[in-house]
Design brief:
The protein is 46% helix and 15% strand. By secondary structure, it is α+β, with helices and mostly antiparallel strands. The chain folds into three domains: 84 residues, no CATH class; 58 residues, 2-Layer Sandwich (CRO Repressor), CATH 3.30.240.20; 54 residues, CRO Repressor (2-Layer Sandwich), CATH 3.30.240. The strands form two sheets. A four-stranded antiparallel sheet has the order 2-1-3-4. The chain has a four-stranded antiparallel sheet with strand order 6-5-7-8. The longest helix has 24 residues. The radius of gyration is 27 Å and the shape is flat. The two termini are 46 Å apart. The mean pLDDT is 78.
């Protein structure tokens, strides 16, 4: 059995492979138990946590003299403090603002707040680019633009430039449902056929219109609430 644990100046190839597997397990649990907010809405505090955790996790691979005890101990300590500070942030608004930051207005009632742009080193070209990404090509349409603590932009347009909805014109709109997957990589899901209120003969008949004779040749097929079939062949 190759030596894996403890301080090692020279690691054999097999020992290195075993250490890699163990590091992979640690990475899995780090990703599994760290709060989902840290990935979906990463604040400065969360970014620092994940950056440090990443460096600690791979340290046994970069330096053989770093033991797993020296790796897991600081990881658990960081988890403890991150959880504790997150719980305090839930109770204290001022504490949360200190660690997570506050939303910042970049456009206030149609006026660009230049001092807030300079504060975060955002020039007008970058602001316009971010607006275009959010399908806003005319800055005059924007009433408010806010930089959130996670770095995302929240935009409110003037009412004259908001898209018209069904409720605006007093038209009844059908509730949109998620299409059901009936074939996935050649595998048929009969329970989803029943949910879509169709049967296998109906499916085969409609597959013919896509020049499909064998279900095995279908990569993906879905049926929406209006019994409209979508097919993507292998």
């Amino acid at each position: 059995m190759p030596q894996v644990f403890g301080e090692l100046k020279d690691i054999t190839l097999i020992g290195y492979v075993i250490r890699t597997i163990l590091v992979g397990v640690i990475v899995f649990f780090v990703g599994r138990f760290v709060t989902k907010r840290s990935f979906s809405q990463m604040t400065t505090f969360d970014f620092a946590l994940i950056w440090i955790l990443g460096a600690l996790t791979v340290s046994p691979l970069l330096d053989g003299e770093v033991t797993f005890t020296r790796t897991i101990t600081p990881i658990l300590t960081l988890f403890f403090w991150h959880t504790l500070l997150s719980m305090i942030s839930l109770k204290s608004r001022s504490f949360a603002h200190f660690f997570n930051g506050k939303p910042l207005l970049l456009i206030d009632d149609g006026r660009i707040v230049r001092k807030h742009l300079r504060k975060h080193f955002i020039n007008i070209d970058l602001l316009l680019a971010e607006l275009r990404i959010r399908k806003v090509f005319n800055i005059s349409e924007v009433r408010y633009c806010m930089l959130e603590p996670n770095g995302q932009l929240s935009i409110m347009k003037y009412s004259a430039h908001d898209p018209v909805t069904a409720s605006d014109v007093k038209v009844a709109a059908d509730q949109v449902e998620i299409p059901l997957v009936v074939i996935n990589d050649g595998k048929l899901f009969e329970e989803n056929l029943k949910k879509a209120k169709v049967d296998l003969p109906w499916l085969k008949e409609n597959l013919v219109t896509y020049q499909v004779e064998d279900i095995d040749s279908v990569y993906l097929a879905t049926v929406d609430q209006h019994k409209k079939l979508y097919v993507s062949k292998k």
